[in-house]
Amino acid sequence: MSAQSFTPIPARPAPINTEGPIAWVRANLLGDWKTTLSTLLVGAFLLWYVPQLLNWVLFKAAWLPDAEACRADGVGACWGVVAEKYRLIIFGRYPFEEQWRPLVATTLMVGLLVASCVRYFWKPWLAALWLAVLAAFFTLMYGNTLGLSLVETDRWGGLPLTILLASLSIVMAFPIALLVALGRRSSLPAIRTFSTIYVELIRGVPLISVLFMASFMFPLFMPQGLSIDVLIRVLVGITLFAAAYMAEVIRGGLQAIPKGQLEAAATLGLSYWQTQRKIVLPQALAMVVPGIMNNFIAIFKDTSLVTIVSLYELTGSLGLALNSDADWRPFKIEGYLFIAMIYFIFCFAMSRYSLWVEKQVNKGKRR
User: Fold this and answer.
1) Residue ranges of the chain with pLDDT lower than 70?
2) What is the pLDDT of residue 364?
3) In 10 A of CB 34, how many CB atoms?
4) What is the pLDDT, as a whole number, of residue 320?
5) CB 60 within 8 A of CB 81
6) Does residue 205 lie in a domain region?
7) Most buried pick, 31, 48, 282, 308, via CB within 10 A?
8) Distance between CA atoms of 36 and 56, rounded to whole angstroms?
9) Is residue 52 one of the residues assigned to a domain?
């Protein structure tokens, strides 16, 4: 081939960058004319609405606990209601001068929950730490020892009660749900029938009915002179309710395990519990992490229903704080936004932790 017949190939255009913020905007917001039109419409709405929202929330809001200033014309949100009533919202009807006790108790409980989520603390002594913190929590809250005055459980409320009910319900519901899920797949008819009746019976009624039965109907069947504290009855009711739903989530994971793995375990001579502990449960629980965390978040939010039995948790404490004061009663929206922020912080933290757990348990499936 002679040099005169050589024809160079024309240069190809440079490839489009697929990484970075500009590439993300191009792919997700300006991909085609429909996406571009939707982006423009949503952007126009945000440009119109967001400034008004910011004016109401921040720039024109009243921050001082002055009810008269909140009623002035042109004033936005009245965050002064939070500044005025935050102690009653957070601690409920707990004696004002003793509120350092629920503050310390709640701090210990939250610290324990955070430590339980860190792999470094997954040691055998973590169970002993739980017992110690729970003992300290109830000692601080109830008192009547170590020079602390007695505070009955019907005066507990606010955030400490919410965290207590949610934490203990989650901790106690999980092993019950595990056993019930295994029971529903048991080859023994009596265990399978009992587990099925329990799940269907609990799932067939709303949580409010369970709380009502535990608080008002259950004492009628107790022997004369014997009474169980309402907090314990409510805690048991929430635990049994949550365990029934969680058992079905876990059962879904158990059913996803191939039967061949069970047959292989039996061939190796593993017992039933060895098979469940070493082969089935690790895989089944890893598959249903999102569903389990979804139940945990639901339990945390469902604690707001205990107001029906006169236990004033976070939501009930807000109603208690505002309904008794006519000056601040018109500013319930700001109060509910405040407790919504608290719920969101806890639920969002649980959601992000769930994503971290998913990544950890799925490391073996990455290639």
Assistant:
1) 1-4, 14, 16-18, 363-367
2) 62
3) 8
4) 85
5) no
6) yes
7) 308
8) 30
9) no
